[in-house]
Amino acid sequence: MKNFLILIIFILISCSGKNKKEQEEVVKPTNTVIKRDISTNQVKDILDKQAYLENEETEDKYTLSEIDLNVLSDLIIKDLKNKGYKEPSNENFTKKINSIFGLNINCNQHGKINTRYLVYHGNLLDGSQSTLEDNLFESSAETGNIFFDQKNKLFTPFILLKNIVTINGQNYSTHIPQNIIAQNKYLFNDSKADLAWLKFNDKAFLETLVRDFGYVKDKDLLEWYVKGNRIEKYSDDKETYLKVFYTKNCDKSFNIHSDTFSYMDSDPEKYSKEIVSVLEDIRTDRIKLENLDFHEKSKLIAYLLYFGEKHKEKTGLTFAFMGTFHKHSSEDLQKKYEDEFKKQKYYGLPSFEKYWNDAKTEGDGIGLDM
Fold it and tell me: What pLDDT score does 13 carry?
């Protein structure tokens, strides 16, 4: 759950006002004068009501609601369009949020607000629906909530208007955080310029897309992530390193990231040793993968073993994968995995069955001691 909160904390880092240096370096807000699309009186009214929340004596006078979110989203979309944002079609917007964030309203981690908004709850709190609803508009740093507006075709955390609006007489200006602008333009407009900006200014957001949401379809993003997240970074947390190879969704579905393996195929000598390391930790139970059931764990192991076997002649790690697995595993464990691999028809991986059978002989006599 902590990983999900990282995304929201960094989205809001420019709005929190807790660190002026970070605000200057990460956010770089830009001002846009809004005309009459949303009246100054309407903005002032929301600002005044939200101000009640800053005082314990008056905080019961106002409750944040969808009205506040509507105004926030309408201000953001205006600024987004002024910065070149192209509003996607309904179909493309839905496809994007499903493929990137895996939204599924059958999961209590994902919800709805009437027909306009989909909500991602980064923190399930006590897990009850009533608690999630009661805390819907609380601090995003605590709730991890992200709102997907199906009307304006954008996503945003909830932000109080005082953090993005300045009143200028009978007009007002907005200063939408640059990272929110870049995130929306990258995800929904495929803006490479904004991806480049995010790589330098909002690394945590991009890492979360890959590591926690399993977004590996963008080869540019995947390459950037893999290069910057070698196993040395996770020497004490190899389970986090392994997240680049799979995603376990809230609806319990399990996806192996074939795109990651395809990318690593380009330089097997570099990545084979990392995979050997995590395989050994899985085999010896130093990596427990408690979030995976046996079928999921078996599939992940199969793909990792297969990568090594496929490239063993290039890497010189001839017996480091399936051979070592056989040599150092108990007969019961070998049989347990073998039965599962057969049941799954070796996951359709070419030559997997041959590699596996050959390794039975290799592993009996020759293995790589870790």
Answer: 42
* Cβ neighbours of residue 210 closer than 8 Å, sequence gap 6 or more: 216, 221, 222, 225, 244
Question: Which position has the higher pLDDT, 132 or 221?
Answer: 221
Residue-wise pLDDT for 60-87, tens only, equals 999 999 999 999 999 999 999 999 999 9
* Amino acid 115: pLDDT: 93
Do residues 273 and 317 touch, judged by C-beta distance below 8 A?
yes
Q: Tokens 């996806």 correspond to what residue?
A: 255
Residue 169: which residues within 8 A CB-CB, separation 6 or more? none
Residue 313 near residue 359, CB atoms below 8 Å: no
Yes or no: say if 248 and 289 are a contact pair by the CB < 8 Å rule: no
Helix, strand or coil, per DSSP, at residue 167: strand
pLDDT cut 70: percent of the chain above it: 88
- Tell me the domain boundaries of the chain: 2-192, 216-365
Does 363 have pLDDT greater than 60?
Answer: no
Q: Which two tokens stand for residue 238?
A: 């190899």
Per-residue confidence (pLDDT) for residue 172, from 0 to 100: 93
Residues 6+ apart with CB under 8 A from 155: 97, 146, 147, 148, 149, 183, 184, 187
SS3 state at 117: strand
Q: What is the DSSP string of 223-265?
A: HHHHHH--GGGGTT-HHHHHGGGEEE-TTS-EEE-HHHHHHHT
Sequence-distant (6+) residues with CB within 8 A of 90 are 150, 153
